[in-house]
Design brief:
Blueprint (H helix, E strand, L loop, with lengths): L3 E6 L2 H10 L5 E3 L7 E5 L4 E6 L9 E6 L2 H10 L4 E8 L2 E7 L5 E6 L3
Parallel strand pairs: 1-4, 5-8
Antiparallel strand pairs: 2-3, 3-4, 6-7, 7-8
């Protein structure tokens, strides 16, 4: 079972701000003498953003589920977050893809009840 994902970012707050727009909450952590970083802790997964220069993540895509895709689209566009793919529907699934400040793709789909 996957339990955590760690990203590097040149500006951890700027990167976390994009994920905050998508509903994630971060806390600041510093284990021992390690670097201060941000962590989003959910029931089964931790997403960590550490400061670093080596931020290239070719082929990495993060997937998130949201309640209202139109509302999220409005928020990300107002914040200047680039869309990689605007909202479309495939097999009844509404989805879009945005880029975080380091160029990682974030696949966002609307939750179906």
């Amino acid at each position: 079972m996957l339990t955590f994902v760690t990203f590097s970012a040149q500006d951890i707050e700027r990167t976390a701000d994009v994920y905050r727009l998508l509903g994630l909450d971060f806390i600041s952590e510093q284990p021992g003498a390690g670097p201060v970083h941000l962590a989003c802790v959910s029931e089964r997964l931790v997403l960590e953003i550490y400061p670093g220069e080596d931020v290239a993540s070719p082929g990495v895509m993060v997937g998130l589920e949201v309640a209202d895709l139109e509302q999220v689209r409005t928020k990300v566009l107002e914040a200047g977050v680039p869309l990689s793919r605007d909202i479309d529907v495939v097999a009844g699934l509404r989805r879009m893809v945005v880029n975080d400040p380091e160029g990682r793709k974030i696949f966002i789909r609307e939750h179906k009840e």
